[in-house]
């Protein structure tokens, strides 16, 4: 028995054209899932789709604003027209800022909360309802952050949004469990992706390394195992409400 076989499953990745989302999508496709790459930048989405196909998977790109309910409803209908299924939802859009606390405007607060939290809630409402109503189970994987608990310095709004994602994950795990729809989150450690490069000053990097027992950044591919594990009903059928750390030991570090 192959615990990690996703053949016959369809995975929808919101923010699937991002560095981390795309890399996890390649793993899901390589293990047999049809992968719907959802994002606003279609050029980046097409690049990810090609990499999924090179890994032996099947992929299709869908254009959507993750914070727009009508866009997400349209994507669901388009995905169902493509494969007839939606078994796995991965939420990984992300927006960050290092604005000092007293300088944060409510426009900036709203913008980050829209991308990091509202998009997750909307996708769980729209795609999650389909899974629950279908009655065949499913897996929702939310991408959180080491900044969710305890919060990192300098990224106040981002930290608050990701703490809320953990809360939403556990709430929905309880709500969806009777329908065998599992809801979990992955907490990546420090993976130098596009959105966080701009705040990685030399001092910040030194501090991160001091608090990471493995003393290095993560590689995007190191998230693939966690993604496939949580996506696979065979491998993680009794796992829901879990926040899975892939952080090189960052969450275990004190002094």
TrEMBL record:
One of its GO terms (biological process) is bile acid metabolic process. The keyword Magnesium does not apply. SUPFAM superfamilies: NAD(P)-binding Rossmann-fold domains (SSF51735). It comes from the Bacteria. It holds the Pfam family adh_short_C2. InterPro entries: NAD(P)-bd_dom_sf, Sc_DH/Rdtase_CS, SDR_fam. Signal peptide: none annotated. Keywords: Oxidoreductase. One of its GO terms (molecular function) is oxidoreductase activity, acting on the CH-OH group of donors, NAD or NADP as acceptor. Belongs to the short-chain dehydrogenases/reductases (SDR) family. PANTHER family: 3-OXOACYL-[ACYL-CARRIER-PROTEIN] REDUCTASE FABG (PTHR42760:SF115), SHORT-CHAIN DEHYDROGENASES/REDUCTASES FAMILY MEMBER (PTHR42760). This is Gluconate 5-dehydrogenase. It comes from Paenibacillus elgii.
